[in-house]
Write a structure and sequence with these properties.
alpha/beta; about 45% helix; single chain
């Protein structure tokens, strides 16, 4: 387990803005391998508590092994259940919550999870390996209209129709089973796009569809009022424009209501140095809001 590496993104900036009470209660909505939580615990006092949520049971086990701190309660569940979990623990709410909406390095680097187009593996892409819907089911069973829709809406793919047609044609010859099967299909349709691989947007679209990621973003914002106590803050870390646009607009609506205020009026992005050390940070955007 310990072989997997994880570099938490914008960790210092998040800790600076989120940890307003040393003895407070905090939620890490995507515990992953525990990178952000480890930093948080190093800054918090002995009475603090962190509830870390993750739908990925393998990542959760590794996080518990790596963090190994009695102040952490690791929960195998979606962060959407956080208000109920805190209530069951007799807590009125959280002083702060982080929602890291990115795919963890562990998931990307493990070919058996099917997220990466750089490593051949089963076409899976599930955050929760117990969920039924996989990327393979989508590309092999969904109709042309639905394939084109998710490629357009979730991948912002300009050649969505051509790719969907190519997928339909390929599956008539045999089931599309692996990441390299799909990558080869897209490469036959889309030519070079500079540093971005032609299949990047297709893979993004499938991952979002498999995990209902945009639905999860909406749920995050809807549960904030129930989750946070007055003075509590929420930090949301996004990695593509669709998510960031949703968060930006929702936060503006909350601030306009007068019951919330933006902690950072302008989006926070990683420094050049952080991106140099961790290329996966390059698309990250952080927004923080406080409940009044």
């Amino acid at each position: 387990m310990s072989e997997w590496k994880h570099i938490p993104i914008l960790a210092t900036e998040i800790a600076d803005l989120l940890l307003t009470r040393p003895g407070g209660v905090y939620v890490d909505g995507t515990l992953g391998l525990g990178g952000h939580t480890s930093l948080f615990l190093s800054r918090l006092g002995p009475s603090a508590r962190i509830f870390g949520f993750d739908k990925d049971s393998e990542a959760l086990a590794m996080a518990k092994e790596r963090v190994h701190d009695s102040r952490l309660t690791a929960v195998h569940a979606s962060y959407t259940q956080a208000p109920d979990v805190l209530a069951a623990a007799g807590l009125p709410g959280a002083d702060g919550a982080l929602f890291d909406l990115g795919v963890s390095s562990y998931q990307l680097d493990n070919p058996q999870r099917g997220f990466s187009l750089l490593r051949d593996g089963p076409l899976d892409m599930r955050f929760d390996t117990q969920a039924e819907l996989t990327a393979a089911r989508i590309v092999n069973e969904w109709g042309l209209t639905d394939l084109e829709r998710i490629l357009t809406d979730y991948g912002e793919e300009p050649q969505a129709h051509a790719i969907a047609m190519a997928i339909m044609a390929a599956r008539r010859q045999g089931r599309i089973e692996t990441t390299f099967d799909l990558k080869k299909i897209v490469e036959g349709v889309v030519r070079g796009r500079g540093k971005i691989h032609p299949a990047t947007q297709t893979f993004q679209a499938l991952r979002i569809a498999v995990n209902d990621e945009l639905g999860s973003v909406r749920t995050v914002v809807e549960l904030l009022d129930k989750l946070l106590i007055p003075g509590g803050r929420a930090a949301v870390l996004t990695f593509h424009s669709l998510e960031d646009r949703l968060v930006k607009n929702y936060f503006k609506q909350l601030a306009a209501s007068g019951a919330w205020q933006l902690v950072n009026k302008h989006v926070i992005v990683p420094s050049y140095e952080e991106i140099r050390q961790n290329s996966r940070a390059r698309s990250a955007k952080l927004r923080v809001i406080e409940k009044l």
